[in-house]
């Protein structure tokens, strides 16, 4: 059960990180584009 839960939790964490960092990277690209 541990292996299955780990395999299920890791992609969830990565998805949360992606959702959290996507807007930040977009803003960073906009600021870089202005300069």
Brief overview:
With about 35 residues, the chain is mostly helical. The protein contains one helix and no strands.
Quantity of strands, as a count: 0
Taken as a percent bin, the fraction of beta residues is under 5%
Number of helical segments with 4 or more residues: 1
Task: Tell me the Rg in angstroms.
Answer: 15 Å
Range of helix content = over 70%
Report how far apart the termini are.
51 Å
Chain-averaged pLDDT? 81
| Structural class by secondary-structure content | mainly alpha
Indicate the overall shape.
rod-shaped
Poorly predicted runs of 5 or more residues: none
Reconstruct the topology from this structure.
Elements: H1 2-34
Structure description:
The structure is a single chain. With 35 residues, the protein is mostly helical. It is built from 1 helix and no strands.
């Amino acid at each position: 059960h541990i292996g299955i839960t780990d395999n299920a939790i890791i992609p969830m964490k990565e998805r949360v990180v992606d959702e959290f960092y996507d807007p930040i990277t977009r803003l960073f690209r906009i600021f870089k584009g202005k300069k």
